[in-house]
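[step 3/7] fold_predict: job queued, chain A
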Amino acid sequence: KLIKDLSRKQTSLLVQLRTGHIPLHDYLHRFQKVDLPTCPCCNMANETVFHFLFQCTAHRRARDRLRSQVGRRNMATKYLFTSRSLLNPLFEFINASRRLHHIFGTIPPVPRKDDDDDE
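[step 4/7] structure written:
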């Protein structure tokens, strides 16, 4: 039900985030598409989904906004990737980071539903 009304772009992004098969350097390095798995934004760690979402210093402002929108206890992939009500803040973070813009462009907001129960 989570992806029922999502666009193809939104669904693709969410699946790639959940599986880790997303064009971040850690994944691309496995296929020799980039020289190093290191994050090109901060050069401090391998650019994994976890690093991108929760650690990269280059995205601190966008992450702070995400945290203020979803709450500290929801700042975990098990919530961000599975709760419909958290998708818009997640997509806003990704848009603000501009890290995946060259692949996905601007991710549109998820249509709100009155009967949105996160299931």
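[step 5/7] annotate
DSSP finds seven helices and no strands in the chain.
Residues 115-119 have pLDDT under 50 and may be disordered.
exit 0
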